[in-house]
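Crash report, auto-generated. Payload:
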Amino acid sequence: MAQGRKMNRAAKLALGAAASLAALWTPAAPAQEAAPAPRQRLEERLISALSDEEITIQTLYAGSELLVFGAVERNRFITERDGELDIAIRIRGPTEPLVVWRKERRFGLWVNGARARFPDAPRYYAVASTRPLSEMLSAAQRMGVQLTDLEPVKLIDARGEPEDPQSFQRAAMRRMERQGVYHVAPEGVSLRGETLFSARFALPPNIVSGEYDVHIVMARNGRYLEASRHLMPVRLSGFEQALARAARERPLLYGIGCVLAAIAMGWTASEIFRRVRR
Amino acid sequence: MVSIYLPIAETSVDLSLLLGIGGGVGFMSGLFGVGGGFLLTPLLIFANVPPTVAVATGGNHVAGSSFSALLTHWRRGGVDPRMGTVLLIAGVLGSATGVRIFRWLVETGQVDLVVALSYVTLLGVVGALMLAESARDWLRRGAPPPPPGPPSRFEKFIRRLPFKRHFPRSALTISLIPPLLIGFAVGVLSAVMGVGGGFVMVPAMLYILKMPARVVVGTSLMQITVVAAASTLMHAYVNQTVDVVLALVLLVGGVVGAQIGAIFGARLRAERFQFLLAALVLVTAGRLAYDLVARPGPEDLYVIRHEEGSGAWRRGGR
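Recovered output after restart:
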């Protein structure tokens, strides 16, 4: 996979196709051997890639789409007795503390009352799978491979924990969902011929820069088999990055620049209008 | 529809929406001599800009658009530079104090409530006063202005204050204490409420300082420009929430709007001008008061925010 990550998109597609062909081809070999040998133990391997190794946010960025795709390689043909193959893909953006207040009525005014804090809320979180995660793996296994559709709102902070944290979690998730940075697609992964899989993820215009963790989990018959992981950086383009860095590292100079730019613009407009009116 | 990505706000916003907001607020600024921050900040939040960025960037926009309008008033002789200087020195000091008060409010929680309540109180009082004044003017319309009555106790008190200076452009001799206090108070308000403070400034200059109407708007713009620039600097330095791309896009709309507003302002009759500003201020106050009193809908019952100052600059590692 490390190699695959460095290749360009076309090469990756070719690799994916080759892998899937290989997966279809390999079982031919054992078939030539002497007939009713004891049932061979099924072994499967996951090969995956992303349509973009990194995403660059430019001035006119208006959202984009990420395709996660791959193939399953195995040592023999599968039969009905092998059970069902499932793939789940989870993308998780950079995390930041999130604070949720519930409004309460005091002295006739609605003010911020009880508060819950989610120290590691991701700025982007999406899960797609071939069927609902709860049908795919047991709860314990899902925890083991960090695959859950509730992760954005894990309430870890005991300090100031409200009586009913669930309602705060639901509110935070609804908000993230409305902003397009949280979605769960229980049938979002399409699996063809038990071999080729793909899923599309919408990256909305309000995604933030940072490392995005793409986690692909394969399970068969309710048992975890294998996972693969890609780190996809989302970067600001040169101009945006320079500004963000200046604001962070040279705040005073940046501030002076902001004021001067605004003043210069005001002056220019005033001059233009003076000439136009004459 | 073309969207533009804002590097500090970390979101992408429709370009025409931003130009429209900037233009509308700029028009108000040129017409009324108010910076328009009290409209700009809520509009930006409505356009999905995080509140902290909206407040800080609003100041940056106000600095540019007020400067543009200031130049127009300056050429027309509508600025009293001496009075403006007195006001802005006190204003910058007040703004520095206001930033401290704001931080204290954040630490004790409930900053939202205090800001909303001060908006409602101030806008309500100022708007009602202006409306009453313009209604009186309206009733007297046609009739000659009544002879000035005997000075009230308040006016006598102001006249007795020491440190008198002459302000030739305003044709006024007045103690330095009232303008210094007004400038300082407006500076505090502008930092705490994230506005320029023109909607307090203009009536204070008219009714307390008794400055002639022709220099009020220009002189308040002079103070607003400097105080807004100072608050932009402070926000950029302390909170790093000034989005220069957002500010410049708003300004493109804003400076054009401000110029048009200034032209309209020169043609508008005084009492109508006052009535319009009063109506605008009262509508904003009413809207904010409604939000405080009305039961929030299920989607608005929860306030959800990324923790203060936890933006990209803190994530680092890019």
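Post-recovery validation: Chain B touches chain A through 72 residues (CB under 8 Å).
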